[in-house]
Fold this sequence. Notes:
Elements lengths: L2 H27 L6 H29 L5 H4 L19 H19 L8 H26 L3 H19 L10 H4 L7 H20 L3 H7 L22 H7 L4 H6 L19
Helix pairs in contact: 1-2, 1-4, 2-5, 4-5, 4-6, 4-8, 6-8
Amino acid sequence: MAATDKALMQELLCIADTDWVLGHWYIKVMLNGRSLPDCTAFAGMGQDSLGHTRAIFRLLEDRLDLPEHQLEFGRQPDALHDLEALSRPPQNWGDFLMTAFLTECAVWRLFSTFLGGSDQALSGMVKHFGKELYFHRLGLEGWMLAASDEERADMKASLAERGAEIARWFGEDDGEDTLLAAGVRASTVADARAGFLEDVVSVITKATDLSEADVLDQLTVSVPENWDAVKRKSPGATVPATLWEFMIPTDPDTVALRRPLAVSVDDNLDLVDRAE
Length: 276
């Protein structure tokens, strides 16, 4: 596998896997909506997120000559490149809103670095997905601004617990960027981080009454020494078993209802360290 192809696969898996987990957050929370429009919105957001994930999976499988559905059904939880803040379930409505909003903004900003790049198919995908992701962020912002005092306090606690963890998803600025050098990426990851901060700070200050300085302080963090730059998370961070069972059921009755696959779920493909 060429270095550029491998780097693109690793980066797109960070985006797709994060959307995959977030989509299941939406499905889990859907029935807790405050109204029928809330439930409908979460259903649509979950559908969008899972659709984006599978579209990226198909793109990678076609280009890497992998069996169909390999990326969805042929990996184990520890092989995912998902955002580690999503590995802990939301504790309340405010925690859910803050985490989902920060994640949506982070996913969009990292994905948007490919907009206008040399890979026209990928750039077109980014442009199309961006229209849907905009409404995700808009909906979450509306719920945040309508929060009660108790929910506002929960959002502040969520920012303190998860904010820096999500912000460090962008990693360090000083590493060589193979995709930028090849023209596949049209803007830097540092630009993505700056855009992320621009997107979230004003919304969070309005929703929580925190100052911009306080919000920025909680979104500023150094990357730990054992940081996994490939998966953009700490080693060992993985989807909890209960959520993974919801994503890829192993219950025999549920598996029996799934259409036949071209790959066994036991293949446990290692995409990162497999032979070139």
